[in-house]
């Protein structure tokens, strides 16, 4: 087979692209977006400013940021017939299943870059710097980021049987999202709508969490977006594929799995028995381990601090005692140390979302919303690559039966 070999299980050591978006050094716990350390961005930037940086490669000027912000917020609302789409789901549908389908639904609307020749033509022109094609691509990106929060909020409220609300202007992206999630609509209460203002500490905490989750180079979901995008469907369909990949408990679903794990452990005194079960492979230690980080996930230190700020407002979650006991015991245990397992971004984020009052199955949705930015940044980078878009079509090593003749049914035993 012309010297083919399986590229290490799970692409363990395979680079599929060259990228200038995000840099990770797994041995030293380094994460940089377009060269800027994640610690500086989390401390000093905002989610939409980081979004601009990831997509366009530079920190925006004041006017660039306000244009980007107003475009994204302008594209937030969605046609009212999307309500029918969400009402078609069963009352207890998982919000990630709804969101995955909703991105594909968006593609049915905004398919101006759908897999038609015009779509290919659009990308080719954009790659050559055609201003109209680039503007068209930007509009797709504004829609994707702007509507990600709207779709997420619809998936959240539909299960509570609540009307959808459109946020007022003048709020930040994250505050608008919190408004869409929590604002009491007129039908929610007898006394008429109250003016809802997100809590500043919680809005800031969510904005930092969005910065930390915005991109992470070739993780499973970003790779899925590019694999799908390489055959040139509309970008919403490629993002729907990425959303499905992130849903899994080995990836973005881990933040929900961590809380379920902590609840099942119950209290710090049960941690030793739980870790023994993990060593026997009877249980999984969710929120620990990472394909790339072999010392520590730099995001987990930042998130840990955000957790304390959130708990100061919401009250301390007793589940933190079990989380801390598990964290400390695993970091001292030879089994985990020898396998270089440390807490990852998902170990603490679920505790924050729980303290903020989100239902557990909504936690992966709170990972998708910011990660849409990383997905579209990589998608745009691929679409504009000077060498053009090449469909991703890997090979395999065939290990099945060699050639054999058909046996008619009556002759089969
Ligand atoms: C995210 O890729 C990204 O960048 C992802 C992400 C992003 O921002 O996009 O960072 C977000 O998805 C973080 C990861 C969230 N997932 C979890 O927390 C789920 C629990 N973690 C494991 O499933 C695992 O650590 C993975 C999936 C994260 C990584 O798996 P790998 O790289 O395939 O590692 P591995 O399975 O080869 O593990 C090496 C060894 C194995 O032991 P041996 O078989 O060699 O004896 O470590 C063991 C594994 O069994 N191991 C674990 C473990 N993770 C790995 N053992 C117990 N508990 C764990 N969590």
Automatic annotation (TrEMBL):
<keyword id="KW-0808">Transferase</keyword>
<dbReference type="GO" id="GO:0006099">
    <property type="term" value="P:tricarboxylic acid cycle"/>
</dbReference>
<keyword id="KW-0816">Tricarboxylic acid cycle</keyword>
<feature type="active site">
    <location>
        <position position="290"/>
    </location>
</feature>
<protein>
    <recommendedName>
        <fullName>Citrate synthase</fullName>
    </recommendedName>
</protein>
<dbReference type="GO" id="GO:0032787">
    <property type="term" value="P:monocarboxylic acid metabolic process"/>
</dbReference>
<comment type="similarity">
    <text>Belongs to the citrate synthase family.</text>
</comment>
<comment type="pathway">
    <text>Carbohydrate metabolism.</text>
</comment>
<feature type="active site">
    <location>
        <position position="346"/>
    </location>
</feature>
<dbReference type="GO" id="GO:0046912">
    <property type="term" value="F:acyltransferase activity, acyl groups converted into alkyl on transfer"/>
</dbReference>
